[in-house]
Amino acid sequence: MNEQDKLFAMRHSGAHILAAAVTELYPGVKLGVGPVIDDGFFYDLALQHPITEEDLVALEAKMREIIARDDAFRREEMPIDRAIAFFKDAGQDFKVELLKDLMEKGTTKIRPEESQDVEVGATSASVYHTGQFVDLCRGPHVSTSSEVGDAFKLTKVSGAYWRGDEKNPQMQRVYGVLFASKRELDAYLTMMEEAKKRDHRKLGAVLGLFAYSPLVGPGLPLFTPKGASMRRALEEFVWSLNRRYGYERVWIPHLAKADLYKTSGHWDKFQDDIFHVTSKKTDDLFVLKPMNCPHHAQIYASAPRSYRDLPVRFAENTTVYRDENTGQLAGLTRVRCITQDDAHIFCTPEQVREEVMNVAKVIDRFYAVFGMPLTIRLSTHDPERPENYLGNTDLWKQAEDSLAGLLKEMGKDYEVGVGEAAFYGPKIDYMATDAIGRKWQLATAQLDFNQPERFELEYVDADGAKKRPVMVHRAILGSIERFLGVAIEHYAGAFPMWLAPVQVRLSSVGKDHVTHAGRLGEALSAAGIRIEIDDSDEKVGKKVRNAALMKIPWTIVVGGKEVEGGDLQVKVFGSEEALVIPQKDLVARVLDAAKMPA
After folding, report:
1. pLDDT tens-digit series, residues 350-404
2. Domain 3-196 indexed as CATH 3.30.980.10
3. Hey, which of 248, 288, 488, 584 has its CA 20 to 30 A from 506?
4. Binding site as annotated, residues
5. Is the torsion defined by CA of 204, 209, 213, 216 positive or negative?
6. What pLDDT is recorded for position 106?
7. Domain residue spans of the chain
8. Which residues are catalytic?
9. Any idea where this protein resides (predicted)?
10. Which residues are annotated as a binding site for Zn(2+)?
11. Among 234, 226, 244, 261, which Cα is nearest to 317's?
12. Predicted model pTM
């Protein structure tokens, strides 16, 4: 067992120990599921008396007591009918429901993030004994509870619906983090304390970037003029990089017939996550588009193509919609409307190499500007779960070997993520590391041999034969909403000038100086600079402090000397020294400081 697998087993065992501790402290608790997640685990619980944040201390102490007992983890294969009777007698209704689904349907139908690892044969399921505690689980686990170690901490309690469905009972979800050493745990907790200070939901409200409305609905953020200006800046930067590699802009509607996604294969895999739309004018079933690739495939199919036309590169910033669980929504990083800087390349097999390499160049350049180092994961299919993917094994091997070879040729180190592929093909996922060390999966390049086949896409080759193109899916910042959430926390709200929602604030000293501040503002605004004028009655010192609280890059105080034509004193956020700029040079200097990265 390698270190990563060992850590997974420790975290999985930590979830069981958490459940065991809850059952000892709260008799009668009903247990849901307790999977491993990034950095730790959680367990969903239904109790008569809810657990509070203050209760976590006692719960964690009980976990340490169980660990000190060194209880053995013992696996047992139990016939499903006996397992149902066992958990029914124990009053564990949620476990009984899971087992009945396994017996009757062959699946628990729990979404991936909610998934309980249950292994089932034709007539049996696996359970694990930990001392007196028994849970439905396929493992893996450590041998004894002491192997979980002491580098863990329970972090928070939140609400969650059973199986992610708001029609089901509401439960409590207790989260924990667990690491291989105390040093790693301490580093993580320090990082999380810093993350609280940078929380994009709080900073977004303070800086006035976006809002939510109960009338609009959860997971549907509303962007203010300031937030919208940041979105446009990001879109323009990505497009400036795309343009160099021959991308062409397209536009597609936000609705489509369900037939489009049935043909593409998305319907069978994701229909539970798709918003359905009904019409009074037609019997056709429509949906809010969850993906853009089938639309782009139809643009490709709308005209005959020759090998001389390829590659064709379609790009756009457009919003897709996913019916996410309410309990999983989180600020901008998990929303129901996802604006993608999406692009799809249709090319010959021989052109795949150059196209994917060019995508890598764009991704490298984009994240270098933000100072976010990248690591790479080659996401492959899981050969033990072929039902999760389209296409045959030979096609998958060809595609995965192709991407692995490209990464090697580019000199890129990478890890392999078995089972992390898209259902239609393998992908190269780029993880960006932010200022406090967290990794975010944002950019991606994906190979797709399946949709061209399902949509019967063609081009005429040099020999006159009709052939299938390869489809390359590509995103640079991924979701604009998610990237903005990451960027807010990465910069702690102190954005580089080209991205800042307000680039310059002009603060008048008194009423006699408002007119001149307005003239300077008009000149900057006419040049495309995002400005604000503070002509309030506040003292100038408070105006400067307010600008600093809003993390505005440049603040210029306009008083009597400036009205008479004197040089401007520019207070630069984060710097103790002021810039001195002649008024005639102001527009040029600001444009230079605020220009978009090349």
Report:
1. 999 999 999 999 999 999 999 999 999 999 999 888 888 888 888 898 899 999 9
2. yes
3. 488
4. 293, 344, 473
5. negative
6. 56
7. 3-196, 202-491, 504-594
8. 293, 322, 340, 342, 344, 427, 473
9. Cytoplasm
10. 293, 344, 473
11. 234
12. 0.84
